[in-house]
Amino acid sequence: MAVISRGFHGRRGPGGDRLPPGQYLTEDFPVLSAGPTPHVPLDRWSFTLTTAAGEKHTWDWDALMSLPSETPQADIHCVTRWSKYGTRWRGVPVDAFLEGVDPDGTYVLVTSYGGYSTDMPLADVTGGRAWIVHEYDGAPLPPEHGGPARMLVPHLYFWKSAKWVNGMRLTRTDEPGFWEQLGYHAYGDPWREQRVQGD
Ligand SMILES: Nc1nc2c(c(=O)[nH]1)N[C@H]1C(S)=C(S)[C@@H](COP(=O)(O)O)O[C@H]1N2
Ligand SMILES: [Mo]
């Protein structure tokens, strides 16, 4: 069996398999965007966390850079059936933004420049399972892959990893995001093939 390096965040199936059901492996890195790529200059970039009570906390680019970063490696799985192993990122764990904050909610709606959004339980982006990443493979994250910064939630289908992230709104009930309103599954676990509502 292959050695799993520190910081590796792949999940395995019940039989120890690495490829979730219905997926195929790709070596390249496809770009999937529902609209045009927004270009956000770093001096105008910000990220705002809004608690369910409406309290706001904002970080600009310098503030993001001053937070301790990690270098997660992860397998990623797109609902259009491609998977890519061992992608390498640098970013700030979502836990860092929640330190000292009373979330007052148990779900999160992640929002992006350009209007994209996606929802998931707060527990899925905390506990070292999600990051706001700003480097891919040792270089600044390219705009087409979500730069300046994107969400990385590798244990869910990749549509949950919002590109061009600009905020996170905590909610008390699950509010469907862009694809979820169009019929994609509310949770999106690749190992349970939760592609669309009803799966
Ligand atoms: N803002 C935004 N984030 C997004 C998307 C999008 O259209 N807009 N597409 C999602 C989907 S469906 C996938 S598979 C991944 C694709 O990321 P990539 O283009 O870096 O491969 O981004 C996700 N995040
Ligand atoms: Mo996707």
Helix content: under 10%
What is the tally of helical segments?
A: 3
Strand content: 25-35%
The quaternary structure here is single chain
By CATH, the architecture of the domain at 43-71 and 88-192 is named: Alpha-Beta Complex
> N-to-C SSE series?
EEEHEEHEEEEEEH
Number-wise, the strands total: 11
- The CATH homologous superfamily of the domain at 43-71 and 88-192 corresponds to Oxidoreductase, molybdopterin-binding domain
* Radius of gyration from the alpha-carbon trace, in angstroms: 16 Å
Can you summarize the main beta sheet? 6 strands, mixed
Looking at the structure, the CATH topology of the domain at 43-71 and 88-192 is Sulfite Oxidase, Chain A, domain 2
Shape: globular
What's the rounded overall pLDDT mean?
Answer: 95
**What class do helices, strands and sheet pairing give?**
mainly beta
Low-confidence stretches: 1-6
| Level-1 CATH class name of the domain at 43-71 and 88-192 | Alpha Beta
The end-to-end span amounts to 31 Å
The ligands found in this model are:
ligand MTE, molybdenum atom
Structural overview:
It comes from Streptomyces odorifer. This is Sulfite oxidase-like oxidoreductase. Residues 35-179 form the Oxidoreductase molybdopterin-binding domain. It holds the Pfam family Oxidored_molyb. Residues 1-22 are annotated as: Disordered. Strands 1, 4, 5, 8, 9 and 10 form a six-stranded mixed beta sheet that branches. A five-stranded mixed beta sheet has the order 3-2-11-6-7. It has a domain at 43-71 and 88-192: Oxidoreductase, molybdopterin-binding domain (Sulfite Oxidase, Chain A, domain 2), CATH 3.90.420.10. Residues 1-6 have low confidence and may be disordered. The protein is built from three helices and eleven strands; from the N terminus they run E-E-E-H-E-E-H-E-E-E-E-E-E-H. The protein is mainly beta and 199 residues long. It binds the ligand Nc1nc2c(c(=O)[nH]1)N[C@H]1C(S)=C(S)[C@@H](COP(=O)(O)O)O[C@H]1N2 and molybdenum atom.
